[in-house]
Amino acid sequence: MTVLSHQKQIVGSSSLLLIAFATVFFSRLLETFGAPAPINFVHFATIPCACGVALVKTKTENRSQINTCHTLLWGLLLFLAINFGSALLNHAGLINVVLKTLLLVEPFLLLVAIVSLPISVRILKKLRIWFEGFVFFHLLLIYCQKFAFGYCHLPGDCDNIQGVFYRSGSGHVVGASVSVSFVIYYFAIAKSQPIWVRILVLIAGLGNILASDAKQVLLILILSFAILALTKGKISEAIVYMIGFIAFMLVFSWVIQNVPAFDSFNTWIRPEIYAPDGEATKLKLSGIKITLEHFHTPLNWVLGLGPGHTIDRLGGWMLRDYEELLSPLGATRTTIGSEVWRYVASSWLATGSSLFSPFWGWAAIWGDLGFLGLASYLYLASVVWRKICLDDLSKFLVLTIMIYGFIFTQLEEPAYMLSMAIIIGIRWHEKQVLAK
Question: Where would I find the H helices in 33-170?
């Protein structure tokens, strides 16, 4: 194979990955404009296919790339095996296994594909420019929805400021999460741009939090920064991070008490709701409690109650909302999702914030796949942390993902997770280019 044909294959693979990502990123917007609802399932085909093409056609001789990809692929096979084991134990449908696996492993597949590419500076720049274009378009829609369409004139209406994730339930949180993660990355790496441009982009992304009233996004950023400070090996670096964290918290505490635009953050400052018998605690843990009531064998602690059978996206609403499409394919359901929704309906706190949702990522993985499934997913995350996150920026983004797992089902939100995978994958290549 000539060098030219090899370069063409790399360019073709990177283009396929961008197209596959676009099928995730813009699916909700296309549905809004009249596309049929199953368009939200297209990425379950495009992402694995694009990743498969990248792995088969773009060979690399870099041992670090090969070892990282092999480690992730073996971890993905283990996770798939656990899904099948849980399905056999709990008589779950094959389509449940497929959807549950893809919802959780698509980001890892995309990372494997990106890392496997022997990318040149030109191709890396192409990936970055296209991804930046996608997110800038999303930010443009955010502020059109805020100021041109007036979606935030009524109480609670700010939830409809969702950018390209319009009309997707928690789209305001997903949209703000993607925006903020991107602008932090952009501010850190776009050194060729004037500082005022980078600051404006940062303000636009952070402004998405206020525009859509996605308060928990800011909470995740604060917690992630604090944890990152604790991971620093050098005491001097840890001190710098902690000083920055304390200074920010002091300023933020003053702001939420004195600036009307930040007044909504005070809704969380109610210690009584976090007590063991407080409403927030009871609501947050209700999904776990109801899941435990359905355990029928000690093996459920190991392998859960089956993919899509508890408090994940599948069991919570996807199998219900797409019943006409998935039932003929053999999808199986339990009553756990509806039982949790009834509990949510009875709670006065349920409409306050998704921070208190009983449907959240780590509990969902445990409920569906048990401690074995949870351990295998954490192993995949540890591989990314150890082998792909080469700087504080990438580690910070991974920490935000891990914390989101305690809040809502964002671990199974394809658009958010794949956006994070692209940023982390591009950042890995940037570090390789700098190293050379």
Answer: 43-57, 63-90, 94-116, 121-143
Q: What is the DSSP string of 209-263?
A: HHHTT-HHHHHHHHHHHHHHHHH-SSHHHHHHHHHHHHHHHHHHHHHHHH-GGGG
In this predicted model, what pLDDT tens digit does every residue of 199-227 receive, in sequence order?
999 999 998 888 887 888 888 998 898 88
Span 193-199, average pLDDT? 93
Report how far apart the first and last C-alpha atoms of the chain are (Å, whole number). 25
**How many residues in total does the chain contain?**
436
Helix (H, G, I), strand (E, B) or coil at 153: coil
Dihedral of CA atoms 25, 29, 30, 33 in degrees, nearest 10, equals -170
Confidence of residue 7 (pLDDT cuts 50, 70, 90): low
SS3 350: coil
Residue from 176, 174, 199 nearest 188 by CA: 199
Share of the chain above pLDDT 90, in %: 53
The CB-side HSE value for 112 (13 A sphere, CA atoms) comes to 28
CA distance 35 to 59: 37
The alpha carbon dihedral of 420, 424, 430, 434 has a sign of: positive
pLDDT at 231 (0 to 100): 81
